């Protein structure tokens, strides 16, 4: 354990997700503290540190990684930088929580996992929604048999930010596009709930010439065993939605806000069967704090992560297939 019995975090970059969600989540967690932040712009790092109440700031990522008091780093950098800085952090002996998607390809993800294993450090992909207890509640409803046998899943994650032409999400070489940015959530949640890997995918996408030809909207079918399919859509040039529907033989579960968690009833979900319609209340928690505590517990106490890094490789393999399908207009079978 560290001297403070808390995991001491360093933040590589001043991305909005870090400032508005992950840093506050770590600061509100039971087992973590944010000790330093780095940016290639030293003034920005200093200003962010002052704004967020972080003790130290650095003007290079290398300087933060060289800080012996830092136990773990959170990486919210653009997607194409995830592999480089995860590997460099591992080589510096730092545990790594890396923003989703973990990498640009499954091969990159596998190399990142291997580097962290070799260095003896933990690696986790930052899918915060999976740590919210409502997913345990949803699984309990499914396992109880209340909605019968699952026949299909439908999920959406869309938002409209198309006017921000300089956004890093719209740089193809940087890992831009809606599948990488938000499509990974419906893909992840179907795998989480069905507890299996898919067999094939078919995806149709709108590649925008105004946005460096990244996919600004994508719709897909992901095939699982026993004829079960995930139908999904994701986009960055569409009205905001983030929904989940699980359809069973005897009923269905509706989650109006599947990935974003608010401090109100919008985070609750609904179960409908022949016996009626009921609302399931879920506790208000900070899912970013729960994510940070799971990671810290794994480092400090040697427990297993709730979601091993190998899961990220599998989700990246599915993303690879979705992107290939969208670009080739073909059904893509996933290897065993």
TrEMBL record:
Transmembrane segments: none
Domain Gfo/Idh/MocA-like oxidoreductase N-terminal: 7-125
SUPFAM superfamilies: Glyceraldehyde-3-phosphate dehydrogenase-like, C-terminal domain, NAD(P)-binding Rossmann-fold domains
Gene3D superfamilies on file: Dihydrodipicolinate Reductase, domain 2 (3.30.360.10), NAD(P)-binding Rossmann-like Domain (3.40.50.720)
Entry annotated with the keyword NADP: no
Residue ranges annotated for the GFO/IDH/MocA-like oxidoreductase domain, each copy included: 135-253
InterPro entries linked to this entry: Gfo/Idh/MocA-like_OxRdtase_N, Gfo/Idh/MocA_domain, GFO_IDH_MocA-like_dom, NAD(P)-bd_dom_sf
Record's keyword terms, sorted: Oxidoreductase
UniProt xrefs under Pfam families: GFO_IDH_MocA, GFO_IDH_MocA_C3
Stated family: Belongs to the Gfo/Idh/MocA family.
PANTHER family (alphabetical): OXIDOREDUCTASES, TRANS-1,2-DIHYDROBENZENE-1,2-DIOL DEHYDROGENASE
Protein name from the UniProt record: Gfo/Idh/MocA family protein
Organism: Laceyella putida
């Amino acid at each position: 354990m560290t001297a403070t019995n808390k995991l001491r975090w360093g933040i590589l970059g001043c991305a909005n997700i870090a400032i508005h969600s992950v840093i506050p989540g770590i600061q509100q967690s039971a087992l973590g503290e944010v000790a330093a932040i780095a940016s290639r712009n030293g003034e920005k790092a200093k200003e962010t540190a002052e704004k967020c109440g972080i003790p130290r700031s650095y003007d290079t990522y290398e300087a933060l990684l060289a800080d012996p008091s830092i136990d773990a780093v959170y990486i919210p950098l653009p997607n194409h930088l995830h592999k480089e800085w995860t590997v460099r952090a591992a080589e510096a002996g730092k545990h790594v929580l890396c923003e989703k998607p973990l990498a640009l390809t499954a091969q990159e993800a596998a190399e990142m996992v291997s580097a962290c294993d070799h260095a003896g450090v933990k690696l986790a992909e930052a899918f915060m929604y999976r740590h919210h207890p409502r997913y345990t509640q949803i699984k309990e409803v499914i396992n109880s048999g209340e909605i019968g046998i699952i026949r299909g899943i439908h999920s959406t994650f869309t938002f409209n930010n198309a006017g921000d032409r300089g956004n890093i999400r719209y740089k193809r070489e940087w890992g831009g596009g809606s599948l990488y940015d938000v499509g990974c959530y419906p893909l992840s949640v179907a795998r989480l709930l069905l507890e299996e890997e898919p067999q094939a995918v078919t995806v149709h996408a709108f590649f925008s010439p105004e946005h460096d030809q990244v996919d600004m909207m994508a719709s897909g079918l992901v095939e699982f065993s026993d004829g079960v399919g995930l139908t999904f859509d994701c986009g960055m040039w569409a009205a905001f939605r983030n929904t989940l529907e699980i359809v069973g033989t005897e009923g269905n579960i509706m989650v109006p806000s599947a990935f974003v968690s608010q401090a109100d009833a919008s985070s609750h979900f609904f179960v409908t069967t022949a016996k009626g319609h009921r609302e399931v209340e879920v506790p208000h928690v900070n899912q970013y704090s729960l994510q940070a505590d799971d990671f810290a517990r794994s480092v400090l106490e040697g427990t297993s992560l709730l979601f091993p890094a190998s899961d990220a490789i599998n989700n990246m393999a599915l993303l690879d297939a979705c992107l290939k399908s969208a670009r080739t207009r073909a059904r893509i079978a996933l290897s065993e």
